[in-house]
Specification:
4 helices, 16-stranded antiparallel beta barrel, 50% strand, 422 residues, single chain, two-stranded antiparallel ribbon, mainly beta
Length: 422
C-alpha cells in the first residue's frame, strides 16, 4: 500500500508541474459560442447540462452573435454561415492504472487527441477527431460525424452521419450522461462503473445514419448502423442494424429528471475470417451474426443542501451476439451479457466532485478477452475529481471487483487521470 501511495504522489506531482500555471485557454466550442466551458457542462466535465444538450441538438451550430459569418468566396453576397473562427481543440490526457498485483502503467496517448468541429455552414455542423487507440491495434483512430439540424417546434430535428472506432452505436446523437455514448459518463474508468460500458453496448466501432428530434423534454432518435469502421469482411448492404432511442426529461423546480429506453436488433453478414481490416482470402464464407440489445436508463440532477448532485442508472437487460462462426473481431464475437449500474456524484464545492458507484455484471459468454469478461461480478467504486480550471481536470477512482465464482479471487482497479483541453 505504501508503494501505491508513493506512485500516486509521484505521478500527481509530475502532472501538476507539467501544467502551466496560466492554463486557462478555452476549447473550440467555447470560442465559437463565446461562453465558458461551464455553460454547456456540469462542474466535472465532460458531462452535459441543459444548455449543452441544446447545443448538441443544434448540430454544434450555435455561435456568438459577434462571431460574424463569412462568405465562401471573397466579395460574394452569398453566405454559407462559415464562422470567422474555425474550431480546433487539443485534449491531452495522462493516465495511471493499476489492477491488483499487476505492474502499474502510465499512458499518455489513449484519450489524447485533436478535434475539429462546430458550425461549418447554415444548419450544418461537424465533429472530427484523431485520438489514441485504446485497443492498441494502431497508434491513432479516426472518428467523425456530420450533422444537419433545423429548428423545429421548441427544439431541433436533424440527421447525423457518423463513424467511430470507440464510441458505439448511439454516438451519432446522444446527449445524456448515462454511458450510452462513451464520452458522456460519470467515471473515467467506466468499464468498472457503468452497465452500458461494461457490456460494451455503449462503445466500440460503428458507422451509421440516424434521424433525431430533441428539445428540453424529449429526445427521439432512430437509425441504422454497421458495427464496424472498416467493411472488410462485412457485406455492408446486408448488415444494417436498426436501432432506436427515446428519452423524456422533466424539470421539477431546480431538478431535472430523465427516463429513457434504447434498443437495437439486426443481422450482420460477415466473413468467417473477419478481423476488422484483416485480409480476407478466397476461402472465406459469409455467415449470419445476429446482434440484439436493449435496456433503459435514468438521470437525475439537482441540488441537495445547495450542493450539486447527479445520479445516473443504466440497466442493460440484454446484449447478445449469436453466431456459429468463430469470429475474432471484437464487436462480432459471441456475446451474452447484461448489467445494471447506479452512479452518484455530489459537489460539496463547485470544483470538487465526490462519487460512488455500484455495478453488477452477469455473463453467459463463452469467449473472454479485452472486449468482455466471461464471469459474473459485483463492483463498488469510489472516486474524486477536481476541476482546477475550466479546462483542467483530475480524476481518481478505486474499484473493487467481487467475482461470484469461488475459484476467481476478488481484485481491485486503481485509476488516476489528468486532462487538459486547449
Amino acid at each position: 500500500m505504501k508503494r501505491i501511495t508513493r506512485n500516486l504522489l509521484l505521478l500527481s506531482t509530475v502532472l501538476l508541474l507539467t501544467i502551466p500555471e496560466t492554463a486557462n485557454a478555452l476549447s473550440g466550442f467555447s470560442r465559437q459560442t463565446g461562453k465558458s466551458c461551464s455553460a454547456c457542462h456540469t462542474q466535472n466535465m465532460p458531462k452535459l447540462n441543459a444548455y449543452g444538450r441544446h447545443f448538441a441538438l443544434s448540430g454544434y451550430t450555435l455561435y456568438d452573435a459577434e462571431n460574424e459569418t463569412q462568405s465562401l468566396l471573397e466579395g460574394s453576397d452569398i453566405t454559407l454561415g462559415l464562422p470567422a473562427v474555425l474550431n480546433v481543440s487539443a485534449v491531452l490526457k495522462a493516465r495511471y492504472t493499476k489492477v491488483d498485483q499487476t505492474r502499474g502503467e502510465v499512458n499518455v496517448l489513449e484519450g489524447s487527441g485533436l478535434y475539429f468541429g462546430g458550425r461549418v455552414a447554415d444548419n450544418a455542423g461537424a465533429l472530427i477527431s484523431l485520438t489514441g487507440d485504446p485497443s492498441e491495434d494502431r497508434d491513432v483512430v479516426f472518428g467523425g460525424k456530420a450533422l444537419l439540424a433545423y429548428e423545429t417546434l421548441n427544439g431541433f430535428s436533424g440527421l447525423s452521419l457518423y463513424s467511430t472506432q470507440t464510441n458505439g452505436i448511439f454516438s451519432g446523437m446522444e446527449n445524456y450522461n448515462t454511458g450510452l455514448y462513451s464520452p458522456l459518463k460519470q467515471f473515467e474508468n467506466a468499464n468498472a462503473t457503468n452497465a452500458a460500458q461494461a457490456t460494451a453496448l455503449g462503445r466500440g466501432p460503428a458507422t451509421g445514419l440516424q434521424a433525431y428530434y430533441g428539445d428540453d423534454h424529449l429526445l427521439v432518435t432512430i437509425g441504422a448502423t454497421i458495427p464496424s469502421q472498416n467493411s472488410e469482411g462485412i457485406d455492408a448492404g446486408s448488415s444494417l442494424i436498426p436501432f432506436g432511442r427515446i428519452a423524456y426529461n422533466q424539470p421539477i423546480g431546480e431538478w431535472n429528471l430523465m427516463i429513457g429506453a434504447y434498443g437495437f436488433s439486426g443481422t450482420v453478414k460477415a466473413s468467417d475470417q473477419s478481423l476488422d481490416g484483416g485480409v480476407i482470402d478466397s476461402h472465406a464464407n459469409l455467415v449470419d451474426v445476429k446482434k440484439e440489445g436493449y435496456g433503459f436508463d435514468l438521470e437525475a440532477s439537482g441540488s441537495i443542501a445547495e450542493m450539486m448532485t447527479m445520479t445516473t442508472i443504466n440497466i442493460v437487460l440484454k446484449n447478445t451476439v449469436n453466431t456459429d462462426a468463430n469470429l475474432s473481431s471484437a464487436n462480432l464475437q459471441k456475446t451474452d451479457n447484461r448489467a445494471a449500474s447506479v452512479e452518484f456524484q455530489i459537489n460539496p464545492v463547485a470544483p470538487l466532485g465526490l462519487k460512488i458507484a455500484y455495478l453488477t455484471y452477469n455473463s453467459n459468454d463463452t469467449v473472454g478477452g479485452a472486449f468482455i469478461r466471461n464471469f459474473d461480478y459485483n463492483t463498488p467504486s469510489v472516486g474524486v475529481s477536481y476541476l482546477f480550471r475550466q479546462n483542467f481536470n483530475i480524476d481518481l477512482q478505486y474499484s473493487h471487483n467481487y467475482p461470484t465464482a469461488s475459484d476467481i479471487d476478488d481484485f481491485y482497479e486503481l485509476y488516476l487521470s489528468a486532462v487538459i483541453a486547449f
